[in-house]
UniProtKB/TrEMBL annotation:
This is CCR4-NOT transcription complex subunit 10. It is found in: Cytoplasm; Nucleus. SMART domains: TPR. The keyword Nucleotide-binding does not apply. Belongs to the CNOT10 family. The lineage of its organism: Eukaryota, Metazoa, Ecdysozoa, Arthropoda, Chelicerata. The keyword Cytoplasm applies. It comes from Parasteatoda tepidariorum.
Length: 699
């Protein structure tokens, strides 16, 4: 049974005595308490039911009866327990949604039990809002309850990635646990025998190890590797193999964060699993085989091997489903199928999210879209999830755009010929036919079942709403070198992106830029040029932009203005000298350690790992992938703008700059070149280009 559940049992046994309570009721309450402590839940429930008939409006009796019946069901009937707790709060005049008026210490027991249920149902923020209020009464609370409240709040802070708050709470717990124990030991040393002192030491050791593990997790979150390694070393110096399993996994995670992937896998493989895995899972709630396969899959993802990562994540899902099937009771509903501490309903969604990421990187876009769609109910407030869904839709619409800008290779530039002699006409292949046919009609409504561009735009709007279209003053202050004063308020400017780690400061700016540029592209594809221009203009107004995003923003702004017949404004964007930098890496300050792991992969397009594998930051289908390609696209768009304005000489000059060193020209530029030359009346030059690029043979 997990610690939180045992804590709930201790907390639920609050003394029922208060003024104006008859002696008979006091005796029944004391007897029920004794039966509960002996784990005789049926006898306890029987007594409490009799007491309930005598005191039908007593919220404390109703609370203790609800807890006892919950234990009778082996903590499986969570739905029924929640309904009873709502009734308890109603009788006690407790409004869980508004706890500002809470001033009764006796209400803390019921609130703590509700927070435990919320924790196991992964309603972390709701549980924190309750415990933050309960923590204000921690001093007058009974010692066990106060300790349990602090430990639960500590776990919640770690679950929502607030490591600095967790470290402060750890310091408070260390003072409360170990300082108080020393003082009590001195004052009551004569009253305690050797066996009790030994039991106290063993309990203190359990708490000490638990706090050390939480410290290591905090240091891993804030990427303080030295402090994390120190805590892990202290943990592994004592304890059994089973007790050290979390330390081994945490050490592997630390090596993973540092980019030592093979060492991380080696550490995972060195873990000795308990002989009875099912028993370990029931006691701790940790699905070790599932965790192992998931971690190995994530490591292979960052090694640039997403297909192998898919294999391991799929195995993790299979292990989780088989273990849950052996624990769950199929005769009951989902919420009553397994004990509270095993209700890891989000574990499957976490694995599904990871599987979606692997498939997206493996360019299996439709499969990735289906994975992401399944996890929307759990992670609908994650802007990254909406961005990933939009990326699936965009890549399904057009997975690669290099065909429009590379040289013709064994492809006939002439589609067919009609007529004979002097009346013979050539019908050219249009490079835009396929792309225009791929664009869905604007009349079709967004459908979550279909990965369309309409749905992509809807997802991007959701993501932008969650991030905010304009940077706040806090995010701007977090993007500059932080001072000592800023460190204390750093967590006030974080963005939760569960199930992945939180983002803050410059990471939020980078995420916003990615959403804006994708929204501009999708709007342009859908023909909404006004919206495309607004998104591009908003991106250019951001305080920090990567070279690639700046290049694309000017490009999309120029194209949208061109389609709005604002040629002069379009030329200003297309003439902008931004093609010297097309780096994908987001510009970071030297003090921004939060982006250190990300920039390791994005800084160089041609970087490889030590073992020769491709890092995840290397996007294989990103185009333009060279300065020359970027300049070609800019010159081509400028040529189009000049052609629309009928400045044929300027258009021709731009087109001639798109010719490669071997004299070849991409199909889009060639089509425009022929069009411009025909307008200039240079038919002979046009015929020469047609003959040069034509591989057509008449039948």
């Amino acid at each position: 049974m997990c610690d939180e559940e045992s804590d709930a049992r201790k907390a639920s046994s609050s003394d029922l005595s208060y003024q104006a309570v008859p002696d008979v009721d006091r005796e029944m309450a004391a007897q029920a308490y004794q039966e509960f402590e002996l784990e005789k839940f049926e006898q306890c429930a029987s007594i409490l039911k009799k007491l309930m008939s005598r005191r039908p409006q007593d919220s404390k009796v109703m609370h203790n009866l609800a807890v006892t019946e919950y234990y009778l069901s082996n903590c499986k009937k969570t739905e029924i327990f929640n309904k009873k707790m709502v009734e308890v709060c109603r009788l006690a005049h407790i409004d869980v949604q508004d706890l500002e008026s809470l001033d009764d210490v006796d209400s803390c027991v019921a609130l703590y039990n509700q927070a435990i249920v919320m924790f196991h149902l992964h309603q972390y923020h709701s549980a924190i809002s309750i415990l933050d209020k309960v923590f204000q009464f921690v001093e007058p609370l009974e010692e066990n309850l106060a300790r349990n409240v602090c430990f639960l709040l500590l776990e919640l802070y770690l679950c929502v990635y607030q490591p600095r708050k967790a470290l402060c709470l750890i310091g408070y717990l260390e003072t409360m646990l170990f300082s108080n124990n020393k003082n009590c030991g001195k004052s009551n040393s004569k009253e305690k025998d050797g066996q009790k002192e030994e039991n106290g030491d063993s309990v203190n050791e359990i708490y000490r190890r638990r706090l050390q593990l939480c410290k290591a997790r905090c240091y891993a979150m804030i990427k303080t590797s030295k402090a994390c390694k120190r805590e892990i070393k202290n943990l592994m110096s004592s304890g059994t193999q089973a007790q050290n399993i979390p330390a081994f996994y945490l050490k592997s995670q630390l090596e993973y964060q540092r980019g030592n992937y093979r060492k991380a896998i080696k550490l995972l493989n060195s873990v000795t699993l308990p002989t009875d895995i099912s028993k370990y899972i029931k006691e701790t709630g940790d699905f070790l085989p599932t965790i192992y396969y998931n971690n190995v899959g994530c490591i292979h993802f960052y090694m640039g091997k997403p297909n192998l990562g898919c294999h391991y994540i799929t195995k993790a899902l299979e292990c989780f489903e088989s273990e849950i099937a052996s624990i769950a009771d199929s005769r009951e509903g989902k919420s009553s199928a397994r004990p509270l501490h095993l209700m890891s309903t989000s574990t499957q969604h976490q694995l599904m999210y990871n599987l979606g990421m692997q498939r997206l990187q493996a360019q299996r876009y439709l499969e990735a879209f289906k994975c992401f769609k399944q996890v929307i109910p759990s992670y609908h407030s994650n802007p990254r999830l909406w961005l990933r869904i939009a990326e699936c839709c965009i890549n399904l619409h057009k997975p690669d755009n290099t065909a429009q800008f590379v040289e013709l290779k064994n492809v006939s530039f002439i589609k067919s010929m009609v007529g004979t002699g002097p009346h013979r006409k050539l019908i050219l292949n249009s490079s835009s036919e396929k792309s225009s046919a791929d664009i869905p009609k604007t009349s079709s409504p967004p459908n979550s079942d279909t990965p369309s561009l309409h749905f992509a735009l809807l997802c991007l709007k959701n993501a932008l709403h969650l991030v905010g279209e304009n940077p706040t003053s806090e995010s701007l202050s977090a993007s500059v070198p932080p001072s000592e004063e800023a460190d204390s308020s750093e967590e006030s400017n974080i963005l939760s992106t569960l199930p992945s780690n939180f983002v803050q400061g410059a990471e939020i700016l980078s995420l916003r830029n990615s959403i804006l540029i994708a929204a501009s592209y999708v709007s342009l594809c859908l023909g909404d040029v006004l919206l495309a221009h607004e998104y591009a203009k908003s991106l250019l107004a951001q305080p920090r932009i990567s070279g690639a995003h700046k290049f694309l923003a000017h490009l999309y702004a120029g194209e949208s203005l061109l389609l709005m017949d604002r040629i002069t404004d379009a030329v200003e964007h297309l003439n902008y000298q931004c093609t010297s930098d097309i780096e994908l890496a987001f510009p970071v300050n030297s003090s921004e350690v939060s982006l250190k792991h990300q920039t390791r992969f994005d800084s160089k397009l041609n970087e490889k790992n030590d073992d020769g594998s491709r890092p995840v930051g290397n996007v294989p289908n990103w185009f333009p992938n060279a300065i020359s390609s970027a300049k070609f696209i800019t010159q081509y768009n400028l040529a189009v703008a000049y052609a629309v304005r009928e400045e044929w000489n300027k258009s021709l000059e731009c087109l001639m700059q798109t010719t490669s060193t071997n004299g070849k020209m991409p199909p889009r530029a060639l089509s425009l070149l022929i069009y411009v030359q025909l307008h200039q009346g240079t038919a002979e030059n046009t015929k020469a280009y047609v003959k040069q690029y034509s591989t057509y043979k008449s039948t």
